[in-house]
Amino acid sequence: MVASDFDEQTLSAVSWLNSNHVDMSCYKLTPFKVNDEIYLQTEKVLPVTNFEDYYVNLMDKSLATMVKRNKGGTRRTLPKIDAMLGWGVVKEGDVIAAKDRDNEGILLANGNIMVNDKEKSMQSWLKEIYGWSSVQTYVFAIHKESGKSLSQIREEYMSQQAMEATDDF
To answer: Which domain of life is it from (predicted)?
Structure first.
């Protein structure tokens, strides 16, 4: 199923069907406009690992409002650093800092980071700094000039474009 959003009853029904071996998925689509091109942001809402998070009690409306949605199971493919460079929201030569650390690097035109005269991917640079096997690159990479994470910059730009696209429809 594909829609701009889903109500609780639909999510509950699809969750129940999935837990009973009926293969169904729900995808949320959000249009946004970048320059003169229209893009669709896709978010997989269901299936998730724990379907009970979406169940609602159809007999008791007061309980339905207390069911919390677990966003941990949703994934969406977001534009990467090359798109952000293309949009002009970040630019070659910008200083990128590791969140809550003193480490900094210079953003290159290809989306990599120059650190101590060595070119590295942002992911590998941040993994070295934090000592983790995995890191949320866009959350832990801070654009020094704005003080915002790359994730925040990307979300703000996409939200602005989505509002403009909605105005155009």
So the answer is: Bacteria
Domain match, 35 and 93 both = no
Which residues, including other chains, have CB under 8 Å from residue 40's CB and lie 6 or more apart? 29, 30, 31, 32
Q: What is this structure's pTM?
A: 0.55
Q: Do 15 and 46 meet the contact criterion of CB atoms below 8 Å apart?
A: yes
User: How many other CB atoms sit within 10 Å of the CB of residue 89?
Assistant: 19
pLDDT per residue as tens digits for the range 76-94: 567 889 999 999 999 999 9
- What are the contacts of 124-127 at 24+ separation with CB within 8 A? 125/98, 126/98
The neighbouring-strand residues paired with 28 are 3, 43
Query: Which range marks the domain in which residue 95 is found?
Result: 81-168
> How many structural domains are present in the chain?
2
Nearest to 79 by CA among 92, 89, 69, 71: 89
